[in-house]
Amino acid sequence: MRPGSEAELAELVRVANAPLALRGGGTRGIGAVGPAEVLETGGLAGITLYEPGALTLVVRAGTPLAEVESALAAEGQRLPFEPPDLRGLLGRGGESTIGGVVAANASGPRRVQAGACRDSLIGVRFVDGTGNVIRNGGRVMKNVTGIDLVKLMAGSHGTLGVITEVAFKLLPAPEMQATLALAGLDDGQAVAAMAAALGSPYDVTGAAHLPGRGTFLRLEGFETSVRYRARELARVLGRFGAVAEVDGAVWAELRDVAPFHGMPGDVWRLSVVPSDAPGLVARAGAEAALYDWGGGLVWLRMAPGVDLRARLGVFQGHATRVRGAGPGPAFPPEPAAVAALSAGLRAKFDPKGLFNPGVMVGA
């Protein structure tokens, strides 16, 4: 099914009596959907409102991400949260849609400075499991409803409703970018260096570590400001070793987890306390690791079938299997109180249990 309007979509959901697998571009979904009929959102496409002077954008959910980014680039603007392209990691084709980005709360290296996708999202429209169209938020950052549905829908992976339209606050594209690099640091030293950079007043917009390749820090903005901040940040980092300025292509690699493309094994995503990251990586026994968000996000490439959660035991954070099959669910188990809250929300917004059955089992 591929409805061409929100009204058509709402009617399809209203009369549905069997599970529906929601699909935007099919490029980033994780978790196994149970038996279900595919419902595509690609027919709900197009930018409905773009006000460059107000740094706001309203766009239908099925609009390709590339189309959105092209329109913004033409006005010297961008989405703040640097959405990743996971097609290479997951071995998929298709075109990512902006609704899929929101459903996954997909966020890249700039999250350390600009926040996640949900932090730039200021409005959402969606169809709930009874066929009602619900609108929350708008073109200004004001929300007076009892539940912040804008934040709730970001990262819900299509389990609460079918997103039909989203609104974002935007940022100007920077005049200049500079990337500083430190070589030869072990994981612990790298996390300490990234913490020093992020704790400095120099507005770092990326902090990552690729073991064996280097530790990278990014600065963006007006040229005069970037040059000054790069010089001062290099002084802060001097105690960790020689600091060099390098090409910024590494950020696209990190955003898309490119070092793991075409490589065998399962891929896991850890959200952790940065200072805990090196110890967890050592405990995991991974075949390869990438550190982003100053160490708060760790990508691990593991041997197929490893139960990483069992291997790590209890830790502050969670582990999601992005690529690969069992054992255990893709999404991390939730504490009992959180699981009860999640079940209550699903019962409220999807009382017939239509949307993406089984996707967030364990969450």
From TrEMBL:
Superkingdom per UniProt: Bacteria
UniProt-listed SUPFAM superfamilies: FAD-binding/transporter-associated domain-like, FAD-linked oxidases, C-terminal domain
Record-annotated FAD-binding PCMH-type domain positions: 1-173
Pfam families on file: FAD_binding_4 (PF01565)
UniProt entry tagged with the keyword Glycoprotein: no
Keyword vocabulary terms for this entry: FAD, Flavoprotein
Gene3D superfamilies: 3.30.465.10
InterPro entries according to UniProt: FAD-bd_PCMH, FAD-bd_PCMH-like_sf, FAD-bd_PCMH_sub2, FAD-linked_Oxase-like_C, Oxid_FAD_bind_N
Descriptive protein name: FAD-binding protein
